[in-house]
Amino acid sequence: MSTLKPTNELGIATLSLGNWREHRLEPRLQAAARAGFQWIDLFDECWSAYLAEHGLSGEGAAAWEATEAKLAVARKLAALVRSLGMRIACTQPLRTIEGIRDAAERRATLDGVAARFPFMRAFDTDLVFMCSTIRRDAGVAPADLKAVARDLAELGDMAAAYARADGGRMLRIGYEGLSWATRNNTWASSWEAVRYAHRPNVGLVVDAFNVLAVEFADPYNPAGHGRIFPTLHESVEVLAGSLAALVAVVPGDKIFFFQCGDAERMDPATFRPPRDPDVPPLLPWSRSHRLYPLEQARGGYMPVELVAAAVVAAGYKGPLSLEVFSSSLNQPGAQVAGDHARRGIDSLRALIDVVQTLPPFWKGPAELQQAVDCVVRRLETTTARL
């Protein structure tokens, strides 16, 4: 029996309460507060739509033009969140930032990140994070660890300089491995870039879906897993070994944020890879078929508890936050936000319960095998119902 007892507060991404096209931000925030969430992860598109509600241009970089009018709206949003008993944990996602070869484009891109810093003060948050790049053109060098680490280090220095200048708390830069990224698509490769950056305010963002999409799942395999190994036991065992290594090598205070989500097990007879070679095979699954953790009745089948347990065992103290993309979030109707908020909070509480029953697989081979057996039994039960 594990002695791990997570005390982390609970959070949810604004996008995981309904999309910005069909659902205004304020009702979604109210639904999150009623459900019991304490933290909000502010998605860029949701912020842009909120600006538009206030008659201000918010498309792309325009969302981060630090005019007094836009900063006033940011402060208004922060006050609304606080009035609901919550706080804004972070803003995201920054995309296609690192590894840019052209000096002028690189400078403009990094300066675009710095343009967010006044808004972070207005939102009363200290964290912004970026995804590893999916660009494959000759204009980027995503496989160049030095280039990626150099960019992360410079962003960390820019954030620290801003904090010193205004006397506020340190601003932090998080780096997340995206499962369909060009290079840094695992927690280990993302951590390598963070470690080489060697800045106290640059850290790792762990996303359970993205970890599992690379190290466990295969939506185009009838078994759902088997990305590398054919048996469920072997797939879980290798995953658990990887996550035990995370506990061993990543300090908890260098994990800046944790997002979690499950996903539907797909039927490859009807769910086919995209025909467009420029569309990553995992993208359709990620964008339309994620679920909240442990939603077995809806087709969820991934061992999210292993990732959550590893992050908490490493010493992470921040929110356990949900990031889910799903076609159900695109439906119209006032009930969408409330329904998803209730589903989300129930799933996080269930995840915490399961984590507490999981043997501490990071402590040694015997515990790892016990945990693997425990997870396999749960997944086999889930599979039998699907």
TrEMBL record:
This is Xylose isomerase-like TIM barrel domain-containing protein. Residues 29-345 form the Xylose isomerase-like TIM barrel domain. It comes from the Eukaryota. It comes from Sporothrix curviconia. It holds the Pfam family AP_endonuc_2.
